[in-house]
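One-letter codes give the sequence; the fold follows as tokens. Both lines appear below.
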Amino acid sequence: DAVAANVSFVEIKTDKGHDAFLLDEPEMFTTLRGFIDSAARTRGLAG
């Protein structure tokens, strides 16, 4: 990208609409967990 930021994108299909992130959506939690774990490892914070 233009500012050399490390970015990613994921599209999670759901029938719950744009507020699905407020609900129990297992695929979203799995994806978010992967992002947080990766960021922690990159910063030496993984336990």
User: Anything to note?
Assistant: The mean pLDDT is 85. Helices lie at 26-42. The chain has one domain: 1-47.
